[in-house]
Design goal:
Rossmann fold
């Protein structure tokens, strides 16, 4: 198993890519610290992880609050002693064209998708620095590389995550900590539930594979990047898009 004896903290672990990643990590032997603001839904993730035979705890944590993330990390350290892997997965959308986007919509997405990544990384970093090892994996998006209509806030945040990743790669690589990002394309998650079928069809038609991706397909890459098999991959931004940009 790729992640045997590793301790992983995953934000936004209640559903979608976060839940799939938690389960994949559990199947690969990792001990899980699953964080989410939706503590009730998080219980399903925990049950599936424990069914895979690993220890897993759930923590109600809000990535927009540094104090909340510090509390979650301290609880994880008290339980397991250290954190080997951070997956910065938590994210939201509040879409609108530029002329109609409210300041609240902009701020909400930046707070979760960008500042939340900063908060979680800073919270786990002292322990990783003390151990001289660690892996930080950040959720960007294909739109962070090429933009998208109606997503000024989301694109700005995901492009910022790429900047974080490349900067932290330079800062933390010499200290034994690898930092990479994943840029998913159209993935079948609850985030797409509000999109009309006609729009989903157009989205599928843009993908050379003619289908949406599954959360498990992103989780598989997270598991590889978290493992020692990816020991020389650092500062990468890897697309999981079915060839969307080709």
């Amino acid at each position: 198993m790729k992640l045997q004896n590793k301790i992983a903290l995953i934000t936004g672990a209640a559903r979608g890519i976060g839940a799939a990643t938690a389960l994949k990590f559990a199947q690969e032997g990792a001990t899980l610290v699953a964080c989410d603001i939706h503590e009730d839904i998080l219980q399903d993730t925990l049950r599936h992880c424990r069914d895979a035979g690993v220890d897993a705890i759930g923590l109600a944590a809000n990535v927009t609050s540094r104090a909340s993330m510090d509390t979650a990390v301290q609880a994880a350290l008290a339980q397991f002693g250290h954190i080997d892997i951070l997956v910065n997965n938590a994210g939201i959308t509040r879409d609108a064209r530029l002329e109609k986007m409210t300041e609240d919509q902009f701020d909400a997405v930046i707070d979760v998708n960008l500042k939340g990544v900063f908060n979680a990384a800073q919270a786990v970093l002292p322990g990783m620095l003390a151990r001289g090892s660690g892996v930080i994996l950040n959720a960007s998006s294909i739109v962070g590389l090429c933009g998208n209509f109606g997503q000024t806030n989301y694109v700005a945040a995901k492009a910022g995550v790429i900047g974080f990743t490349q900067t932290w790669c330079r800062e933390l690589g010499p200290k034994g900590i690898r930092v990479n990002a994943i840029a998913p394309g159209f993935i079948q998650t609850p985030m797409l539930d509000s999109i009309p079928d006609t729009v989903l069809t157009r989205m599928r038609d843009q993908v050379p594979l003619r289908r949406l991706g599954q959360p498990e397909e992103v989780a598989n890459l997270y598991a590889f990047l978290a493992s020692d098999e990816a020991s020389y991959i650092n500062g990468a931004v890897i697309e999981v898009t079915g060839g969307l940009r080709l």
